[in-house]
Design goal:
It is built from 2 helices and 21 strands. The chain is mainly β.
Length: 322
């Protein structure tokens, strides 16, 4: 496993001199103008801003071992979660040993992203839900990921939640990261399935596209061998205490995956933008240049609320992201 990790790190350190551009700049003056007579200045509500999802279209069910996306937030108040990928596992290795596999949060095995916390500090987050594996007579084995990097379990926490809320049991890591408003980044998730049968690992990297500098953020040992990621959804969420009215935004570009068993990457120029839930706030979303974008506020009646819609951007990338 050490040899595998060294090779992965070397692959990421030997980079091209210039990476593809991040999301095009969004003309927010046009898209975020506040109409006269709105209730923005008098808003004192405690409801969260709408929760917006962006799901890239890779044309059918697909299992992949690597994922990358470029992203930027031009409005980044406290209590912002920009999730770059919210995925499920295909569990092909576990299903060779067990008759069924489930998790407390149906359809979600993990997510990764960036947060601005209540005190204004910024961090990364990686979360993987526990796997409940059942044999033919109903005996259950619970498998939980462990943290490999950072090696001292810095930022790592085992969470035993209330299953009635849908969160359930999972592990996550929160570590400081100097995430800047208005700066372009590239997120990369890598999943290893070693041929020697040792456990699969999940690695989370980020690249600052201004400097082309890559950083390994977190690495997990999943506790079993043989899985792929499927389904990928990015989202923008408001979890603030007192910044619900503030604008928060996300822009995504160059979505791409590397399917299991293939060397070539697959890109897409299409994604569906939708509102997962809304507490009567306002939101807009769409496409501009190479980017899918959204902007939200908890203040009602600021903008119209678009329906779920498949958007197409001007360009994407199927090249290796590193």
């Amino acid at each position: 496993m050490r040899k595998v990790l060294i090779v992965l790190l070397l692959c990421l350190l030997i980079l091209p001199t210039a990476l593809a551009d991040g999301p095009d700049y969004i003309p927010w003056d046009e898209y975020s103008a506040v109409p006269s007579g709105s209730a923005f200045n008098s808003f004192s509500g405690t409801q969260s801003a709408p929760y917006i999802c962006c799901e890239p279209d890779f044309s059918g069910k697909l299992s992949y071992c690597e994922f990358a996306v470029d992203f930027r937030s031009d409005f980044l108040p406290t209590g912002t979660y920009l999730c770059v990928n919210n995925w499920d596992f295909d569990d092909h290795g576990l299903l060779q040993r067990y008759s069924s596999v489930r998790r407390d949060y149906p359809g979600v095995a993990g997510y990764a992203g960036f947060q601005r916390l209540y005190d204004g500090s910024t961090c990364i987050i990686l979360t993987v839900w526990d796997s409940y594996c059942y044999d033919l007579i109903g005996n259950m084995t619970r498998i939980q990921a462990t943290q490999v990097y950072p090696s001292n379990n810095e930022g790592f926490e085992v969470c035993v939640g209330d299953t009635t809320t849908g969160e359930g049991c999972f592990v996550h890591t929160l570590l400081p990261f100097d995430w800047k408003e208005g700066r372009d980044y590239r997120a990369l998730l890598q999943l290893t399935n070693p041929n020697d049968g040792t456990n699969s690992h999940l690695l989370f990297y980020v690249c600052d596209l201004r400097t082309d500098a890559w950083y390994l953020l977190v690495e997990y040992d999943l506790g079993y061998n043989g899985t792929g990621m499927n389904r990928c959804v990015s989202f923008l969420e408001d979890f603030s205490a007192d910044a619900h009215a503030d604008f928060r935004s996300a822009a995504f570009s160059n979505y791409r995956v590397r399917p299991l068993g293939q060397l070539d990457w697959m890109g897409t120029r299409k994604a569906t933008l939708s509102c997962y839930y809304s507490n009567n706030g306002s939101y807009r979303y769409g496409s501009y240049g190479n980017a899918f974008w959204t902007i939200t506020t908890a203040v009602p009646d600021v903008w119209y609320k678009p329906a779920d819609q498949l958007f197409t951007v001007s360009s994407g990338s199927s090249e290796s992201p590193y």
